[in-house]
């Protein structure tokens, strides 16, 4: 801002020299006006307040948040599909591993939700 004020002052001085050279009339009161304008520009530049940077917030989320969920359920492979006892293998082969996968996905979702809520409280996210 100060450089701009100096450039403006140099431009005004050049114009004043040009006016004096063309008209042959000395410009006396213009120096006072120039000093006033320069003082106003300099004080306007010095009076500005610089906004403060906000405190940094650690925006790193838990690595669980970025791990993809396994949505592929294990295949049900009974030894003899025609045997009625084959249904007994459905739980240990498919349902129990599926429950474990859902629990892991819920842990990942909770890690992401915790991170997002922390960033909202800190004002990083709206």
Provide structural commentary.
The protein has 126 residues and is mostly helical. The chain is 58% helix and 0% strand. The protein is rod-shaped. The model has no long low-confidence stretch (mean pLDDT 78).
The percentage of residues in β strands lies in under 5%
Structural class: mainly alpha
Q: Give the SSE string.
A: HHH
Cα-atom radius of gyration: 38 Å
Query: Would you identify the regions where 5 or more consecutive residues have pLDDT less than 50?
Result: none
Tell me roughly what share of residues is in helical segments: 55-70%
Taken from the alpha-carbon principal axes, the silhouette is rod-shaped
Summed over residues and divided by their number, the pLDDT gives a mean of: 78
Keywords:
126 residues; 0% strand; mainly alpha
Q: What is the strand and helix layout of this fold?
A:
Layout: H1 2-23, H2 29-46, H3 90-122
Helix pairs in contact: 1-2
In short:
The protein is mostly helical and 126 residues long. The chain has helices at residues 2-23, 29-46, 90-122. It is rod-shaped, with a radius of gyration of 38 Å.
């Amino acid at each position: 801002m100060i450089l701009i004020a100096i450039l403006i002052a140099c431009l005004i001085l050049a114009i004043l020299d040009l006016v004096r050279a063309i008209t042959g009339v000395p410009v006396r009161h213009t120096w006072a006006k120039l000093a006033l304008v320069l003082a106003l520009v300099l004080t306007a530049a010095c009076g500005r307040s610089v906004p403060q940077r906000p405190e940094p917030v650690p925006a790193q989320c838990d690595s669980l948040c970025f791990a993809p969920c396994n949505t592929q359920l294990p295949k049900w492979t009974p030894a003899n599909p025609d045997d009625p006892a084959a249904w007994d293998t459905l739980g240990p082969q498919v349902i129990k591993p599926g429950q474990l996968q859902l629990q892991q996905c819920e842990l990942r979702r909770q890690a992401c939700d915790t991170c997002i809520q922390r960033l909202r409280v800190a004002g990083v996210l709206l």
